[in-house]
Design brief:
Chains A, B: InterPro entries: NifX-assoc_nitrogen_fix. Chains A, B: This is NifX-associated nitrogen fixation protein. The structure is a homodimer of 155-residue chains. Chain A has six helices and three strands; from the N terminus they run ααααβββαα. In chain A, a hairpin with a 5-residue loop joins strand 1 and strand 2. Chain A has 155 residues and is of the alpha+beta class.
Chain lengths: 155, 155
């Protein structure tokens, strides 16, 4: 991967959604690679600028760290939902070897998020702003669903 | 695996639930191994008698054919649900390498089946009767859920 695009001084690094995804990325780092890294460096590979995207082959199998980033993203959204609705939110990421699959979040018997995944080896966001925007949108939609169908979410 | 426990003459081989699981097993047989096999032989490894269970190690990784059998089972239940409720039912089997995970079936935004999987390398049923009984129970519970929350299932 090319030079870091994020900086320690980036304002959004302190945003609650970003804090949550950093926590989740560190939680999935079973070999302790990130232990000595500052947050902006842990987060940096989530951002795929046009230049970075060009460097990734169009077709390919996702590697383990890319899958970890995808899982951290779903875990962070689930944590965001839990905080709002005060019910357990369960992320399920189901992938084939080729990087196709489903990203789900379940609250009780309610599917609050259901996304088709493709090209997971190219998973990332144009900018930190886009990442935050996307996460907030996903959480808001899920919370609205839980509020509309609280009986099913509490099953 | 020991000698076949099922026989061609077994009455239950003609049961709709059993027909469905045989169809699903054949659909997942990408190498055509089952092409020349009669149905009872395709179905036979789903039945784990006490003797067969004893032959399987307590701890182990599930092999590909065992996972296929598990998927065929969820696909067959999903097909049974679809027939009853006339809505699409989506099976999701999510497994770790060690054979732990989740078996889900989704109808729209409704989780109609949610089972924790463990010891998948030992997946099987005591008898064909037990298999049919289990499938019918799963389908009936799922159909009841859809009927109780049709609005969520139709989302």
């Amino acid at each position: 991967m090319s030079e870091a695009v994020l900086q320690e001084s980036d304002d959004l690094i302190g945003h609650p959604a970003v804090r949550q995804i950093v926590t989740q990325l560190r939680a999935l780092d079973s070999y302790g690679t990130y232990d000595t890294w500052p947050d902006f460096k842990v987060l940096d590979p989530m951002i795929l600028t046009k230049e970075r995207r060009r460097e990734i082959p169009v077709v390919g199998d996702p590697d383990e760290t890319t899958i970890s980033r995808l899982k951290a993203y779903y875990n962070a959204i689930a944590a965001g939902i839990e905080r709002e609705v005060e019910l357990m939110a369960v992320p399920v990421v189901n992938l084939s070897h080729e990087g196709f699959g489903k990203g789900l979040i379940l609250v009780g018997r309610l599917v609050v998020l259901n996304r088709t995944l493709r090209d997971v080896h190219r998973f990332g966001f144009d900018s930190l702003e886009k990442l935050v925007e996307d996460m907030e949108k996903q959480v808001a939609q899920a919370v609205a669903l839980v509020n509309a169908h609280r009986d099913v979410a509490e099953m």
